[in-house]
Amino acid sequence: MNLAILGSGQWGRSLAMLAAEAGNQPRLGYRGQPPRGFAGSPNLAALCREVELVLVAVPLEAVGEVLSQAQPGPHNRVVLATRGLQPETGLWLTDLVKERTDCLRVGALAGPAIAAEVSARRPSALVAASPYDEVAALTQKALHSPICRVYTSSDLIGVEMAGALVRVLSVAVGVAEALQLGVGVQAVIVTRGLAEGRRLGRALGADEGTFSGLAGVGELVAAGKHPEHPGVVIGRRLCGAGGVEEAVVREAAALVALAQRHKVNLPLTEAVGAIAAGRVKPRLAIDMLMRREATSE
Amino acid sequence: MARSARPAAPDALPVSTSLPELRAALLRRARLRLLPRADGAVADLLAEAVYLERRRFAESRGGLSPEDSVERGQIEEAARAVHRGRAEQETALLGLVGAYAGQIHNTFSPRTYRFATSVLPSGLSRILTAADPGRGRGAAADGAGAGWFGGHVDPLQRVHIRGDVALLQRLARTHTLILTPTHLSNMDSPLIGYALHAAGLPPFIYGAGLNLFSNPVMAFFMSRLGAYTVDRRKRHQLYKDTLKDYSTEAIGSGHHSLFFPGGTRARSGEVEIDVKKGLLGTGLIAWQEALRAEAAGGAPARDVLVVPCALSYAMVLEAETLIEDALKESGQRRYIISDDEFSDSRSVASFTRQILALDASVIVHFGAPLDLFGNPVDEQGRSLGRGGGLLDRRAYVLDREGQLVEDAQRDRVYTEALSGALVRAWHRDNTVMETHLVAYAAWRLLVAESPRRSTWERMFLSEDERLLPRAALAEAVGRLREALDAKVAAGALRSHLPSGADPTEATLRLALDRFSRFHSQPAVAEVGGGRVRVAPRLALYYGNRLAHAGLGDVPLSAPAVGARPAESP
Predict the structure, then answer these.
(1) Which of A140, B8, B304, B438 is deepest in the core (most CB within 10 A)?
(2) What's the predicted TM-score (pTM) here?
(3) What structural domains does chain A harbor?
(4) Does A132 sit within 8 Å of B386, measured CB to CB?
(5) Which residues have C-beta within 8 Å of that of residue A29, sequence separation ≥ 6?
(6) Residue A77: closest C-alpha in chain B
């Protein structure tokens, strides 16, 4: 199968390697220098015209621009391998595809596959979600191989929500690590993060179990064990040098606003937003979380 | 008024398929549907039909009608096959499909259509008022003038038709149209038939509930004007599939069709936010069948377009019953209401006369047409992409070699995308009228006066608690109108409100006048002493037309320190 992967960074190249491992012919859409070892083109629109399946693997802030350039059409299936909620619009990334392009068949890819580990051919697993069975199945066919299990799901909203929430919660993991709060606190972040994900997922009509799967707990556990996870690195940085992490502030704010519209509380996400904005010192934020009213689990 | 000049009669009227032809087509489709089913699934389909129909007969209040008795016989005959082999089960299922074909089939008559339309405005007016012929003839005989509305009212002048009707007239000649109106009242079906003729559009076939056929005069006209019968008491899959097959067959043969995608009248008065996708999806099935036929060397596939349509009434005949039903716990709500105001012939006639005696009391807004995936189309019906350029809609269903890819699951999701586009269009094209705005303001003021009470508790406010200062209501109406005008200017929705030197007072007066005309308790009524009395149920019902208009944050009075934000209906 021919497929296009938009983005030639480490994650894009890892996905291309997985696709090749699965017996397919991936082509990378890149900007600047062509990636070594992979076929590709800087003309994203031409790539999209030539293939059915398009995986998007660029940083969150670049997704809108890349979609505008690539202009996938009615024949394409676009799967977002980038996690997150577009902070400016509060749109899920697959909604952004439908809003900006003529492509309707969309999906999302998530899970605890770390680019560096995938590149080292270590075993990994991902979940491909789409309301269109054919999109999830096509993505599975594109990437499933003996070194990567790809599961399908119809719960697109659940997988996108889990991906967005994990990006923020992984910052809390980094904070806990930097403050040397111990393994117990990291477990608390995972389990209470799971509770936040389930509450929000329920309100959004997602499957409650999705956050317990690869896209939610799977990624969060991986973040806790992976010292170079971007969220964890940001968390450590906030505890060290302090300052403001604008991207985290915006993403946390977009999630909290979404949750408020559905009358859902996300205390952990709010705390990360406050730390990232420099409004609250990390240790005080932990203290405030601990002093919240006692409740049942 | 945006109604265009009426063009010449449409090029072609839909030709009624004969019942034997239709039955043969539905049986062919049913057989194809049964073919891939496992033995157990065939048995289940039959068992479900038998079970749900038996239950319906058992729960039938007031005994069975002669038609129901015949159907019970058919079901009992089918029941004998439940525990037999697959061949007998299929025979039983196909027997039921054959029977349903006869029940659903419309008897569209070009002759009746020409007759009815040639005597307009009185022709369709008669349908609207046929329930009370004595009143109409009496009015004419009294010398008040000719006609069923006392001789003073040309109903066509009262039903305001908006939207790009000329575009629809053109597209109706080259495309098959599916008209998808919002649904508020049993008046909607005759109203739409009326509006289509007035707009110079050809007749559409449409599914009408069995209860609408209870009046023999209405049944005669409705059936011959394109209505086919939908018996919503039948809940089993076999019947639903047969209905969908009928719709697919009709669209595929080029009949313009009308569905109410909301499924039933909006109980709460809100513009629909949810859509039933069963019948709506038949457009996509029919189009793909035409593509397949084209690929096999047949005629070029006729494209199918969907036309959203927003109906707005200043007053709704069944308002009291509908809101009562909406306020019941969801489990107790009735999907089919057979004993509302519409079942009383005299109420229908009286209400129809009164509503059509009011200027601009009914607005039919034909929205911009969409393709089957929710994309807008150009003047020639070609799909337009997000960037405004042309889009090849066939690429949604064909593979790269141009072969049709059948995928029912994919098509269901496509229909969801279409549903979303329809809902957005309805909300954008919903026309806010004075009764909606004043009721919304009155309800919000009641909520502000009783912030700790639930919606249900507010239905039982005392007489005193229902009184509001008229000046406060006027101020609220003025503030809301200002915010509304801004939204209208931004194209977010539409309004038809009085203007002039004091538009707020004109709006309030007009609404109070209209409210005073029909319902047993006006939604808002002037009671003297500078006060108005609010009837909570009806204020909630009419105000709900603005429930999703984004006015919930508009303050109703000058902000006071510590004021609570108001709750929207």
Answers:
(1) B438
(2) 0.85
(3) 2-154 (3.40.50.720), 157-290 (1.10.1040.10)
(4) no
(5) A4, A5, A6, A7, A8, A40, A41, A42, A43, A44, A47, A66, A70
(6) B396
